[in-house]
Write a structure and sequence with these properties.
Blueprint (H helix, E strand, L loop, with lengths): L6 E6 L2 H5 L2 H14 L6 E6 L10 E5 L3 E4 L6 H10 L12
Parallel strand pairs: 1-2
Antiparallel strand pairs: 1-3, 3-4
Bound molecules: FE2/S2 (inorganic) cluster.
FE2/S2 (inorganic) cluster binds next to helix 1.
Protein backbone atom coordinates (compact mmCIF):
# COMPACT_ATOMS: atom_id res chain seq x y z
CA UNK A 1 0.00 0.00 0.00
CA UNK A 2 1.18 3.47 -0.75
CA UNK A 3 1.18 5.98 2.07
CA UNK A 4 0.48 8.62 -0.56
CA UNK A 5 -3.07 7.44 -1.03
CA UNK A 6 -5.49 9.89 0.45
CA UNK A 7 -8.40 7.60 1.08
CA UNK A 8 -8.79 4.13 2.51
CA UNK A 9 -12.13 2.48 1.92
CA UNK A 10 -12.99 -0.45 4.17
CA UNK A 11 -15.79 -2.58 2.80
CA UNK A 12 -17.13 -5.09 5.26
CA UNK A 13 -16.60 -8.62 3.99
CA UNK A 14 -18.23 -10.41 6.92
CA UNK A 15 -21.37 -12.51 6.85
CA UNK A 16 -24.22 -10.00 6.99
CA UNK A 17 -22.70 -7.55 4.56
CA UNK A 18 -21.79 -10.35 2.18
CA UNK A 19 -25.39 -11.56 2.26
CA UNK A 20 -26.59 -7.99 1.68
CA UNK A 21 -24.75 -7.48 -1.61
CA UNK A 22 -21.15 -6.81 -0.70
CA UNK A 23 -19.77 -8.41 -3.90
CA UNK A 24 -21.80 -6.19 -6.22
CA UNK A 25 -20.88 -3.19 -4.13
CA UNK A 26 -17.20 -4.06 -4.38
CA UNK A 27 -17.46 -4.28 -8.17
CA UNK A 28 -19.21 -0.91 -8.32
CA UNK A 29 -16.57 0.69 -6.11
CA UNK A 30 -13.69 -0.65 -8.20
CA UNK A 31 -15.37 0.49 -11.40
CA UNK A 32 -16.36 3.93 -10.15
CA UNK A 33 -13.02 4.65 -8.49
CA UNK A 34 -11.28 3.89 -11.78
CA UNK A 35 -13.81 5.87 -13.83
CA UNK A 36 -13.26 8.86 -11.57
CA UNK A 37 -9.49 8.64 -11.94
CA UNK A 38 -9.08 8.10 -8.20
CA UNK A 39 -7.05 4.89 -8.38
CA UNK A 40 -3.86 6.54 -7.18
CA UNK A 41 -5.60 8.34 -4.33
CA UNK A 42 -7.70 5.45 -3.06
CA UNK A 43 -7.18 2.04 -1.54
CA UNK A 44 -10.13 -0.33 -1.24
CA UNK A 45 -9.77 -2.96 1.46
CA UNK A 46 -11.93 -5.70 2.91
CA UNK A 47 -12.70 -5.39 6.58
CA UNK A 48 -14.10 -7.62 9.24
CA UNK A 49 -17.47 -6.97 10.81
CA UNK A 50 -17.94 -3.28 11.52
CA UNK A 51 -20.53 -4.01 14.23
CA UNK A 52 -23.32 -2.36 12.29
CA UNK A 53 -24.73 -5.52 10.77
CA UNK A 54 -28.30 -4.21 10.83
CA UNK A 55 -27.20 -1.58 8.30
CA UNK A 56 -25.45 -3.97 5.90
CA UNK A 57 -23.70 -3.57 3.60
CA UNK A 58 -21.32 -1.18 5.34
CA UNK A 59 -18.45 0.92 4.04
CA UNK A 60 -16.16 3.10 6.15
CA UNK A 61 -13.90 5.71 4.59
CA UNK A 62 -10.79 7.21 6.16
CA UNK A 63 -9.90 9.93 6.82
CA UNK A 64 -13.04 10.48 8.74
CA UNK A 65 -14.46 8.08 9.50
CA UNK A 66 -17.19 8.57 7.00
CA UNK A 67 -19.65 5.73 7.25
CA UNK A 68 -21.97 4.57 4.52
CA UNK A 69 -24.71 2.19 5.50
CA UNK A 70 -27.04 0.15 3.34
CA UNK A 71 -25.01 1.33 0.40
CA UNK A 72 -26.21 0.16 -2.99
CA UNK A 73 -24.11 -0.14 -6.14
CA UNK A 74 -26.31 2.41 -7.89
CA UNK A 75 -25.48 4.95 -5.18
CA UNK A 76 -21.69 4.60 -5.27
CA UNK A 77 -21.00 7.31 -7.84
CA UNK A 78 -23.34 9.85 -6.32
CA UNK A 79 -22.57 9.26 -2.65
CA UNK A 80 -19.04 7.92 -2.36
CA UNK A 81 -17.20 9.19 -5.42
CA UNK A 82 -18.66 12.67 -5.17
CA UNK A 83 -17.51 12.87 -1.54
CA UNK A 84 -13.99 11.77 -2.43
CA UNK A 85 -13.82 14.27 -5.27
CA UNK A 86 -14.92 17.05 -2.96
CA UNK A 87 -11.89 16.52 -0.74
CA UNK A 88 -11.92 15.59 2.91
CA UNK A 89 -15.15 13.81 3.73
CA UNK A 90 -17.14 15.08 6.68
CA UNK A 91 -16.69 13.00 9.83
CA UNK A 92 -19.06 10.20 10.70
CA UNK A 93 -21.74 10.80 8.15
CA UNK A 94 -23.89 8.18 6.51
CA UNK A 95 -26.52 7.61 3.97
CA UNK A 96 -30.13 8.06 4.97
CA UNK A 97 -32.03 4.89 4.16
S1 LIG B 1 -21.24 -8.17 8.89
FE1 LIG B 1 -20.81 -6.19 8.08
S2 LIG B 1 -21.10 -4.89 9.79
FE2 LIG B 1 -21.33 -6.88 10.62
Amino acid sequence: MSDERRYRLYLCAAMHCSAAGRAALHRALVQQIAAAGLDDATELRDSGCQNRCEDAPNLTVWPGPMRFRRLRPADVARLVIDQLRSGMPPPDSGTPH
